[in-house]
Write a structure and sequence with these properties.
Blueprint (H helix, E strand, L loop, with lengths): L6 H6 L14 E2 L4 H15 L8 H16 L3 H18 L5 H17 L3 E2 L16 E6 L2 E7 L5 H14 L8 E5 L8 E7 L9 E3 L2 E6 L2 E9 L4 H16 L4 E3 L4 E4 L11 E10 L17
Antiparallel strand pairs: 1-2, 3-9, 4-6, 4-8, 5-6, 5-11, 7-8, 9-12, 10-12, 11-12
């Protein structure tokens, strides 16, 4: 069983329960090789700083550019380029130690690139791998079955234990992640429901089980951002802003369902190793029609 006994406290500020499921041995997710290569560029460049008498800022900028080139058009690449641009602006403004701030940023990005999510339990059948930290990606989920209960009006702990008792009483193995959905109309982050995902859609039967509903979820696409650290409201809100900006730059996609967070780790995992995703389910839409191009409107030629 996955030791997620107080994951709900991370999402809803609940207290620690008196007991916890037994932990299982963790699995490491596979890290994309471009991230390894980019991290190696940063490591070598940072290591040479102490013996480099040349312009340290430009030396770091060159290293960051090589790392960004490895990462293509990803958000990680953009963050590296933005860090260089910021450092150059500081340098032009007379900041003598702009290179030091850039070095600290690149070391933080290096650690992010090497970070591997710690999986405390199996993913449901057919689920995609966790999104790399800092990156935003569009990915597809297969149909799956879940057990869901309301979070509104309750502390997260209450929702968690209803779900845990459900799978325990039905001899259903726990998987990762735990899914939490949020009200898209609320100004503040407000949890709506928490769900445990079944390992396979053939397990059990759909229907009401007291306070728990067992439902089948159709295949979907989501835009997802990978995040390090403890799952908090502030971090979810920051991730939501990033996802909304991404969607604004991709007018062929629109939100199809409420924001959700996918929590992979129990509080037994340290903050430094904890990982979660924030996602918005999406659907394809017709691209905006350009008035300058009559063919876009569907007119006959």
């Amino acid at each position: 069983m996955l030791n997620l006994a107080i994951l709900c406290a991370l999402a809803a500020g609940g207290g620690e329960p008196t007991a916890a499921p037994t932990a299982v041995a963790g699995e490491q997710a596979v890290m994309p090789s471009p991230r390894k290569r980019a991290a190696a560029h940063l490591e070598r460049g940072l290591a040479l700083l102490a013996t480099n008498d040349a312009d340290r800022l430009e030396a770091l900028a060159s290293v960051a550019q090589r790392a960004a080139d490895e990462l293509g058009e990803s958000r990680s690449a953009r963050l590296l380029r933005e860090a260089v641009e910021s450092a150059r602006l500081q340098d032009e403004a007379g900041a003598a130690d702009a290179w030091k701030e850039l070095a600290r940023t690149l070391e933080a990005r290096r650690r992010d690139l090497l970070f591997q999510p710690y999986l405390e339990a199996e993913l449901p059948t057919g689920f995609p791998a966790p999104t790399p930290v800092l990156d935003i990606e569009l990915k597809a989920y297969p149909a799956y079955r879940l057990a869901r209960t309301e979070m509104r009006g309750t502390r997260g702990n209450g929702a968690f234990w209803k779900l845990f008792q459900h799978i325990q009483s039905n001899d259903i193995a726990m998987t990762a992640p735990v899914e939490m959905t949020y009200d898209p109309t609320a100004d503040e982050l407000e949890g709506v429901a928490m769900a445990f995902l079944y390992g396979d859609p053939a397990i059990g039967e759909v229907g009401e089980r007291g306070a728990v509903d067992v439902l089948d979820v159709e295949p979907m696409q989501v835009v997802s951002i990978g995040c390090r650290g403890r799952l908090t409201d502030a971090r979810i809100q920051a991730a939501r802003r990033e996802l909304n900006s991404w969607l604004a730059a991709h007018p062929d996609l629109a939100a199809a369902a409420p924001l959700r967070a996918m929590g992979y780790n129990s509080p037994m995992v340290s903050d430094a190793r904890a990982y979660f995703e924030v996602q918005i389910p999406v659907r394809r839409v017709d691209p905006p029609v350009s008035p300058s191009n009559p063919s876009d409107s569907g007119a006959d030629s």
